[in-house]
Amino acid sequence: MTVRVRGLRRAYADGRHVLTGLDLDVGAGELVAVVGRSGCGKTTLLRALAGLDRDAHADELVRPDRVAVVFQEPRLLPWERTWRTVLLADEPVRRADRPRAVAALARVGLADRADQRAGTLSGGQAQRVALARALARDPDLLLLDEPFAALDALTRREAHALLREVRAQRPVATVLVTHDVDEASALADRVLVLRDGRLDRGVRPGPGAAEALLTALGVVRPAAHAAAGALAAQ
Ligand SMILES: Nc1ncnc2c1ncn2[C@@H]1O[C@H](COP(=O)(O)OP(=O)(O)OP(=O)(O)O)[C@@H](O)[C@H]1O
């Protein structure tokens, strides 16, 4: 197991308990998607998994040292050459490391943009660079916080295909947080629902999974009832 979390809790200063004893396992090379309504604590969970939140507490939290995060916004430095933004985690960025950056850009199909200013990339390209930056760290755990939410529908589909390709080259344990049940069912090995501070239900991707997830999230649509059979214990 690459990630094993037991009893993860996080309360904010206003007394709001966002994570209330959450358990999560992610196997080597597995992609687990976490879906939930806006404000349910998805980003809070990812920040805790990334080790970015000192006020999150768990009875047990096992995860690898090399963790990379991709956020909803690409967070590039617009005035920098693209290859340099790929290496932002290494301070200082050294010209000798350029080949490593270009290799990471090649994995997302953007090697030819290495010397372009990051601020002149399209939204979809910028998000691919953000993925390249995460991959350049050769992570053992990849955390994706709604990385495709700001992309238009076509670019998002391309990004999904790219993520599949990248993971086929080297399957890295991945947690994808999203509010998009179709995206979750299309990409994940397992989809978990975050509700009331815990991951309480697992859904197997496949026909009817998206409808089953909507039902689990309390979004009732007439067709959803037929899909209830796709629900399974985590
Ligand atoms: N620093 C903070 N201080 C106080 N409350 C916070 C803080 N960060 C988040 N929250 C609250 O915790 C809850 C969970 O926030 P979080 O960003 O984790 O949700 P989310 O599921 O990622 O939401 P969305 O899908 O809208 O991005 C929200 O009610 C939010 O207002």
Bound molecules: adenosine-5'-triphosphate
Point out poorly predicted stretches: none
Task: Spell out the CATH superfamily of the largest domain.
Answer: P-loop containing nucleotide triphosphate hydrolases
According to DSSP, the number of beta strands is 10
Query: How much β-strand is present in the residues?
Result: 15-25%
CATH fold annotation of the largest domain = Rossmann fold
Major beta sheet, specifics? 7 strands, mixed
What's the architecture of the largest domain, going by CATH? 3-Layer(aba) Sandwich
| Oligomeric state of this protein | single chain
Strand order of the largest sheet: 5-6-7-3-8-9-10
* Rg estimate, integer Å: 18 Å
Judged by helices, strands and strand pairing, the structural class is alpha/beta
Please give the domain count.
2
Total helix count?
A: 7
- In N-to-C order, the SSE pattern is EEEHEEHHHEHEHEEHE
Q: What can you see in these coordinates?
A:
This is ABC transporter domain-containing protein. The chain is of the alpha/beta class and 234 residues long. It has seven helices and ten strands. The chain is globular. Helix 3 crosses helix 4 and helix 6 crosses helix 7. The mean pLDDT is 89. The strands form two sheets. A seven-stranded mixed sheet has the order 5-6-7-3-8-9-10, with helices on both faces. It has a three-stranded antiparallel sheet with strand order 2-1-4, with helices on one face. It binds adenosine-5'-triphosphate. The site of adenosine-5'-triphosphate (ATP) has 13 residues, from helix 1.
